[in-house]
Design goal:
By secondary structure, the chain is an alpha+beta fold. The protein has helices spanning about 45-50, 55-60, 60-65, 135-150, 190-195, 200-215, 225-245, 295-315, 320-350, 360-370, 375-385, 395-410, 415-425, 435-450, 450-460, 470-475, 485-490; strands at about 15, 25-30, 40, 80, 85, 90, 100-105, 110-115, 130-135, 155-170, 170-180, 250, 270. Helix 7 packs antiparallel against helix 8 and helix 14 (about 435-450) packs antiparallel against helix 15 (about 450-460). It binds adenosine-5'-triphosphate and magnesium ion (MG). Magnesium ion binds next to loops.
């Protein structure tokens, strides 16, 4: 009798709702095979949450799926079409180096896009090679997982495999594929594509699909398309407020990099701000500061106005009426954003309720931080841990006065000192993915194949509000921060 090899259940349970949309929305295409795939980093917790079999996925057959060399049962791989305003200029785009292999439905019944980024050319590749380099894919892995741990909606990272192929950028670099997980990859740019290159019915189909997938509670609203616009505006206002509160700079807020689900997407030239300065920019090609930290809320509103334009024909038969509705909805963005940001800032200072002077208290602190080039994260951490002597502001008279006002403010509220402290601990991360730390981890992985530094970094980033001693040791900022990553970020 021949011995039968036990078959491991893979856990893949894929649906392809996107492939049921009109054909113009995507191109079905199988990933290009790569010569020698090797798994270099794997997210066990996420795999388990997705109902996947970790052991199987890490086996040769499983890695073949993560490399695009084999397609799991039930998969219909496709590249999504989209368009977008890049630095203000409108272009036809689409997944030029990514493929959606399907939507995984874990036992919980949720639905998650599974996408391979770097999986080879597609009809939307334009002049690109369809590939991604190892460094930037590991960088996306680290920062997206850190964002998730910080409580910020984001696409997730399941795995990175190296391909065994070199790709050519300025130099020869090792190629890699990231498996990205998202509530969906619907972008403002997906709507722009439908509106500019399709029919009104295409936009309606896409809007209905989006409502069913992300906003089912508005399906029966009187004007469901206006509700969709309002919901997306709310989610983006919440998201961008969360970015600002932790000092995250996205770096390429093009409309194709803004999701409809309200998740952060595309970790290209992003980074966390060290010294507080609203003018901080990370992208080496952002000459105007369009995507500077302090400009992110404005750009959020600008992008959402582009989204609103795509929905105009659906909002009302009378286009003047439609424009009025859309303008009003867009006008709400600033209000929602400010409410979220302001509530978050009060929490960072341990303030529970709202007083009229709070706005000035916050503004004065930020101004001082800017004038003294104080580190954003570490200043709030020092306030949280009552280690004021650790801030760059400590010796200033101005700060002493401010501190008195702040202490007096805290005394005016009912909550106990412990509750105040807890609120601050939960609102001020002890650790964020500092770029110099990320760079060291990437260098060790890419140059020497040593992933232990990256694993350690991922571990300390996974509980940012724990405030452990070990995390403190990760928080020092060198006097001269190496800015060379400005050219490293990107593709
Ligand atoms: N190496 C490449 N080959 C082909 N197309 C590419 C390549 N790099 C980027 N693109 C395409 O250029 C456009 C803009 O790129 P951008 O950097 O915003 O996206 P990305 O990082 O590739 O992907 P995503 O937004 O999905 O994270 C997208 O259409 C993208 O697919
Ligand atoms: Mg992009």
């Amino acid at each position: 009798m021949t011995e039968e090899k036990p078959m491991l259940e893979t856990g893949w349970n894929l649906d392809n709702s996107y492939a049921r949309l009109p054909k113009s929305f995507f191109t079905k295409i199988t990933p290009n095979a790569v010569p020698s795939p090797e798994l270099v980093i794997f997210n066990d917790t996420l795999a388990t949450n997705l109902g996947l079999n970790n052991v199987e996925l890490k086996s040769k057959d499983g890695v073949a799926v993560l490399a695009g060399n084999s397609i799991p049962e039930g998969s219909i791989p496709l590249a999504q079409a989209y368009a977008g305003h890049q630095f203000g200029n409108f272009n036809m785009l689409g997944d030029g180096r990514a493929l959606l292999i399907g939507e995984q439905i874990p036992p919980s019944g949720d639905r998650f896009d599974i996408q391979l980024k770097g999986s080879g050319p597609t009809p939307y590749s334009r002049n690109g090679d369809g590939r991604a380099a190892l460094g930037p894919m590991l960088r996306e892995y680290i920062i997206s997982e850190a964002m998730h741990a910080l409580g910020i909606p984001t696409t997730r990272s399941l795995a990175v495999v190296t391909t065994g192929e070199s790709i050519i950028r300025e130099t020869e670099l090792p190629g890699a594929i990231l498996t990205r997980v998202a509530a969906s990859h619907l972008r403002v740019g997906t709507f722009q594509y439908a509106a500019n290159f399709g029919t009104i019915e295409d936009v309606r189909t896409l809007a209905d699909y989006t409502i069913e997938r992300h906003y089912p509670h508005i399906a029966d609203d009187e004007n469901r398309y206006l509700s969709l616009l309002q919901e997306v505006i709310k989610r983006q206002a919440e998201l961008i407020a969360k970015w600002q509160l932790v000092g995250f700079i996205h770096g390429v807020m093009n409309t194709d990099n803004m999701t409809i689900s309200g998740e952060t997407i595309d970790y290209g030239p992003c980074a966390f701000m060290d010294a507080y300065n609203p003018a901080t920019v990370f992208s080496s090609i952002d000459y105007q500061g369009r995507y500077a930290y302090g400009n992110q809320p404005y750009i959020g509103g600008w992008n959402l106005a582009r989204f609103a334009e795509t929905l105009l024909p659906l909002l009302d038969d009378d286009q003047n009426e439609a424009i009025k509705m859309a303008t009003e909805a867009i006008g709400e963005f600033n209000k929602f954003y400010h409410e979220n940001w302001y509530a978050g800032m009060r929490a960072k200072l341990g303030i529970f309720n709202e007083e009229k002077e709070d706005e000035k208290l916050i503004e004065d602190l930020l101004n001082m931080m800017q004038n003294h080039s104080a580190d954003y994260t570490n200043t709030f951490r020092a306030l949280t841990l009552d280690k004021l002597e650790e801030t760059a502001l400590f010796n200033s008279e101005e700060f002493k006065l401010w501190n008195e006002l702040w202490q007096a403010r805290l005394k005016r509220q009912q909550e106990s000192k412990d509750d105040t402290l807890q609120l601050m601990r939960n609102s001020n991360p002890a650790i964020i993915p500092r770029n110099h730390r990320v760079e060291v981890a990437l260098e060790s992985a890419v140059e020497n194949g040593d992933y232990s530094v990256m694993e350690k970094l991922l571990e300390v980033l996974s509980k940012p509000y724990a405030h452990t001693q070990e995390q403190m040791d990760f928080c020092t900022v060198p006097a001269e921060i190496d800015q060379s990553y400005r050219t490293y970020c990107g593709t």
